[in-house]
Amino acid sequence: MNSEDIFLTGTSITFLSMIYYFKTYKQKKPILILKDKVDKMLSDNSFDYIFDVRTKEEYDRGNYKDAIHFHIAKINKKSLEKYDKNKKYLLYCRSGRRAKVAADTMKANGFQNVYYINYILN
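RE: above sequence
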């Protein structure tokens, strides 16, 4: 094998690795859903669980009906063990930042259907 063959083989492997990485990375990202779509999904009872990842004080001031308070600091591998990884989850906070971090944590722990929004539900 000459140096040109080695270069082409290395380039091909790198290219295929990049395709695989981006394909699998995209699948691991939680899904941001917009207000008009989430309203329909909620009215259709599309979610098995709704997690409010704000502080207890924020949650006590008002929360979405049927939401479970699950503070972002408590979302980890151990605390997620009791939940089914194939159910559909919606996460929310005040701005979406904490919900996104919590959703990323869930996806990293093998949860398949994780959605988040970047506003508080009314």
